[in-house]
């Protein structure tokens, strides 16, 4: 759902079709694995996965079995990367709605939302450190984080169908109600049965929501300060500036530098040339300073080390 903005128009229709195809594939895989496990009498154990046991019973230890194992590993690798592809888009949408800093709107050198990826990586490292990398402790917390949004999204769709009341809205509402009820039941079971593993959710989420609303409030206040006054009766204070200081960054004395200084003098009353020096070649930096002062004796030269 976070990747809906990436679809071609009509976005919602294409996203729905893609989701339906994915759900069908998942249902076929799940149904097939469940049937084969029951038919062959396979039970989970700590030494071998269910898929591996099915593969041995169906294909033996031949090449097809290893292809199955390799395919499973590749699917798991893609699944592990899902968060790093979906969360940056989610962070982008939140930032666009002013619930996260606008830095999450920026793309990095690889045209990905780097700030979202970095934030997710840091959060993942923190969780691994807190729980010691124990998947038995992390999975219940992950499940709560999955099914609570499911419950909220399904409930939101019920409200959506009720407000629009389009074709067959009652049937669609019932379907979403069933989904919301199942998700809520799973969340309730997780809190009742695995509370020692999921209690951090009750602390972290309110804190995050408070941060989101604080950020949103900040952007709303900034927007109010920057908004052009529409009420003609309101008097807007004006400021008068006497003189203007123009700072020109200089890397060397060239024709470009001369043109930049000339333009700065045409728009400002006071021009400062600023040069950033590095200790790698002090003789060159000193030469640049002397050459600039010789060519532009009336311009102040500031050398920053």
UniProtKB/TrEMBL annotation:
GO terms for cellular component: membrane. It is found in: Membrane. Keywords: Membrane, Transmembrane, Transmembrane helix. InterPro entries: AA/rel_permease1, APC_K+_Transporter. The keyword Membrane applies. It is a multi-pass membrane protein. Coiled coil: none annotated. One of its GO terms (molecular function) is transmembrane transporter activity. The chain crosses the membrane at residues 15-38, 50-68, 74-95, 116-133, 139-162, 174-193. This is Amino acid permease. It comes from Lentilactobacillus parabuchneri. The lineage of its organism: Bacteria, Bacillati, Bacillota, Bacilli, Lactobacillales.
